[in-house]
Amino acid sequence: MTHDATPPAPDANWFVAARYGLFVHWGLYSLLGRGEWVRNRERLSRRDYADLARRFRGERFDAGELCDLACAAGQRYIVFTTMHHDGFRLYHTELSSFCSSKTAAGRDFVAELVAAAQVRGLRVGLYHSLNSWHDAPDGVAALERPSARVRFVDRTLARVEELIRRFPSTDVLWYDGWWPFDAGGWRAAEMNARIRAIAPNILFNGRNGLPGDFATPEGHLSSPRPWRPWEACLSLNESWGWHVGDHEWKSARHVAALLQRCAASRGNLLLNVGPRGDGSLPAPAVRTLRSVGRWLTRCGEAIYDTDTFTWDLQVRGDHRADWSHHGPFTARGRQLYWHVCRWPGSELVLDGLETRVQAVTLLGTDHRLEFRQRGRRLVIRGAPVAAPDEVCPVLRLTCAHPPRLYLTAGMRVPRAPHPHYDPCPSDLLPP
User: Fold this and answer.
1) Residue 352 is part of which domain span?
2) Which of 74, 78, 190, 322 would be 405's cystine partner, CB 3.0–4.6 Å?
């Protein structure tokens, strides 16, 4: 079989509709509690780091509980670190003794996770680093000696191929750690072709040097232009792997805001948690995930399966949205969802509507609100004085046609060609 081209990508509709997933960074580094790059950042010796495998048992790691939490949080898929850059595999492998099944834990944590996820109907993504600080030759040697480079890349391809042969029902192969090579150096086309020959329906991210089947902005929520399937990966605090000193936990309101932004651009939020070394989850992370899950039970129709509903600073273009002091918007079909994160009281005013509103409902209730619309201006009255949802109240505006909002920085929309807001390139634009 030749490997000069990757077979066509499978249908990614499930991924586009998923909207929300759980990312889990866990490994030997979790025992130290100083982040997943601790071996590199502190230049720990190979021997000292390998000694951690004699202590790593994961006695409180429960794949069923983890997947139950993802379901309760409203997440539709889970991505699990099978091997980070440190080279320790959390699955059984014939290619190395540096794995959880052959050291103190005596367990295949990936197999446990995959089985638990599939029973609960969660899609499964397997994170796998192409780099390895443990294996010899490593990436540094591969840069320095052509013979080492061949062995290094050969072993990487063998490793990812073995992983997918062990778990052929994997939905996503989430590459990472592609230092020090580009797509050519990693033989990425061959890599993808060999994997898809085993798992024809698998999706790839773009971190082996090729674009992949979806984009993965990290630490920001900038959707690709032109649009294609995408997933923003962020952590619940400021660390991917467990860090004992990181207490900057995102609130449920913060996560809801991230979901709103992803939904408006038809993207996914892959939200990370780093378990402790014993496999247990930090209580603040559990509280936030469960709180967001309860909010999605009430308001999930404003997040899942939404249409693109965005706006542009400089030109009218074909965008359909605008902004409000009270909170952002999402849309689906003839429904406009107003996420009123900053509740103003019993009366709400929305201008710029280019369609008629037929009903206004507070999501999570049967409460219909009174409203009056004159032209493009909608006035909603009789709403609760205090915010009716502890995370974020959402109003559903049922419209006569797919909703559009358009205002400008002027007091009326000009009848002449005009910029939407900023006439010059703006530093407000995302990176």
Assistant:
1) 308-409
2) 322
